[in-house]
Amino acid sequence: MSIEIENVNKRFGDFVAVDNVKLSLPNGELTALLGPSGSGKTTLLRIIAGLEQPDSGRIRFHGEDTTDVHVSHRGVGFVFQHYALFKHMSVFDNVAYGLTVKPRRFRPDKAEIKRRVMRLLELVQLDWTAHRLPSQLSGGQRQRIALARALAVEPRVLLLDEPFGALDAKVRTELRRWLRRLHDEIHVTSVFVTHDQEEALEVSDRVVVMNHGNVEQEGSPEDVYDHPANPFVYKFLGNVNLFRARVRDGQARIGDIALPVAEHHPQDGEGYAYVRPHEIEIVTDPSEAGLSATVELVSIVGPTVRLELRVENGEDLVHAEVPKGRWRELGLAQGAPLRVRPLASRVFLHGETLPSAGA
Ligand SMILES: Nc1ncnc2c1ncn2[C@@H]1O[C@H](COP(=O)(O)OP(=O)(O)OP(=O)(O)O)[C@@H](O)[C@H]1O
């Protein structure tokens, strides 16, 4: 079931929560709506669900206009951050609930309900909890039951709103891998809201980055990470260093260093080069091209060494990340002089919002 979102607008009083959003979400894909708090992700999800009416615009499921179709007839399944399972019902009864409340003529018989529920519990790998109460499960297990419950009615579209938001970091990481595998098995068109860029990049087929009710960029996780369309997306998708840069004759420079950028800059001007911490090269030979700097702080995080470097005449600290092996090779200590060289970068000229040619 594909989902088409056509020029959807939603205001709350004077506040524009969703601003003329157009999106086409392909059949069977898992799409992440990613953005900071208040960017309109949940409102858009609720509009897709039919829990909220847009002020204007249309929602289509596989070409069929569902804008005015009531939530109960849209065939959507939900999982929310705090999905209250029925406390006094067993896990089995919770998952069976959506089937048992169907009108008699659509309701499967008892044996069929049992078969379906047990199959779903196996799918979420919790068949052994069927007779437990939700209070006897961990938070992560409860969310998997919530997902089984949402899938029980065979929704055309599955909508998840920060489904792992309330769980601790380790369980969260496990569950998102698990969700990815589950989705690979069932292929139901799914949309999930998150403000966690790592979660969106790891789990989804497609990422939609939102800000102030607008779509800033959409594309595959690799695409949005490697080719951010604008400074907002760049900053939102991970740590980034900004260097003052100058573009002349298609070439960008930071001070005297020519930047090894793949793209050709069509316009001359001043702006900023955006360089991720792992794209900073550190060299010790003072005769090599680079910006002079000193090591201000070293923190070792597992196999990676994170550095804060003070660049001569620089306004801000430069953050760099190098593998531990490389750091040992360099043999530098806190306060040591070195040279810093951006390995890759993307230059946005002042006032530029659209990607330059070649990006
Ligand atoms: N029913 C409502 N009445 C008034 N304002 C609302 C209502 N629902 C949402 N808003 C406002 O619309 C904006 C977008 O909210 P929304 O929940 O869609 O954002 P979000 O990106 O999902 O944020 P979060 O990650 O914090 O949930 C927020 O500023 C919010 O305060």
UniProtKB/TrEMBL annotation:
<dbReference type="GO" id="GO:0016887">
    <property type="term" value="F:ATP hydrolysis activity"/>
</dbReference>
<dbReference type="InterPro" id="IPR017871">
    <property type="entry name" value="ABC_transporter-like_CS"/>
</dbReference>
<keyword id="KW-0764">Sulfate transport</keyword>
<dbReference type="GO" id="GO:0043190">
    <property type="term" value="C:ATP-binding cassette (ABC) transporter complex"/>
</dbReference>
<feature type="domain" description="ABC transporter">
    <location>
        <begin position="3"/>
        <end position="237"/>
    </location>
</feature>
<dbReference type="InterPro" id="IPR008995">
    <property type="entry name" value="Mo/tungstate-bd_C_term_dom"/>
</dbReference>
<dbReference type="GO" id="GO:0005524">
    <property type="term" value="F:ATP binding"/>
</dbReference>
<dbReference type="Pfam" id="PF17850">
    <property type="entry name" value="CysA_C_terminal"/>
</dbReference>
<dbReference type="InterPro" id="IPR003593">
    <property type="entry name" value="AAA+_ATPase"/>
</dbReference>
<keyword id="KW-0547">Nucleotide-binding</keyword>
<dbReference type="InterPro" id="IPR003439">
    <property type="entry name" value="ABC_transporter-like_ATP-bd"/>
</dbReference>
<dbReference type="InterPro" id="IPR050093">
    <property type="entry name" value="ABC_SmlMolc_Importer"/>
</dbReference>
<keyword id="KW-1278">Translocase</keyword>
<dbReference type="Pfam" id="PF12857">
    <property type="entry name" value="TOBE_3"/>
</dbReference>
<dbReference type="InterPro" id="IPR027417">
    <property type="entry name" value="P-loop_NTPase"/>
</dbReference>
<dbReference type="InterPro" id="IPR005666">
    <property type="entry name" value="Sulph_transpt1"/>
</dbReference>
<dbReference type="InterPro" id="IPR041193">
    <property type="entry name" value="CysA_C"/>
</dbReference>
<dbReference type="Pfam" id="PF00005">
    <property type="entry name" value="ABC_tran"/>
</dbReference>
<keyword id="KW-0067">ATP-binding</keyword>
<keyword id="KW-1003">Cell membrane</keyword>
<keyword id="KW-0813">Transport</keyword>
<keyword id="KW-0472">Membrane</keyword>
<dbReference type="InterPro" id="IPR024765">
    <property type="entry name" value="TOBE-like"/>
</dbReference>
<dbReference type="GO" id="GO:0015419">
    <property type="term" value="F:ABC-type sulfate transporter activity"/>
</dbReference>
<protein>
    <submittedName>
        <fullName>Sulfate ABC transporter ATP-binding protein</fullName>
    </submittedName>
</protein>
